[in-house]
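Need residues for this backbone.
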């Protein structure tokens, strides 16, 4: 039995993570998400680029972001 690919389209990744496409685009543009690790270009020669997202790595990133936000909010209340 073949394991499904962890690389999903933007729409599928957003649905699975519960975020908008702008969250992924912003994180990609500001360097939080790394090319080749978190995302890759489906067809680099296309006029309009289409991205694929490694959903398992994005889930780890999302968990780390949530944890950092929780720690920061805790610091504010001390």
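Answer:
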């Amino acid at each position: 039995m073949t394991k499904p690919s962890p690389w999903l389209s933007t729409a599928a990744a957003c649905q699975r993570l519960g975020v908008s496409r702008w969250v992924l685009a912003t994180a990609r543009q500001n360097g939080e998400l790394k090319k080749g690790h978190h995302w890759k270009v489906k067809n680099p020669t296309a006029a309009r680029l289409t991205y694929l997202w490694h959903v398992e790595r994005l889930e780890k990133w999302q968990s780390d972001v949530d944890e950092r936000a929780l720690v920061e909010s805790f610091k504010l209340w001390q």
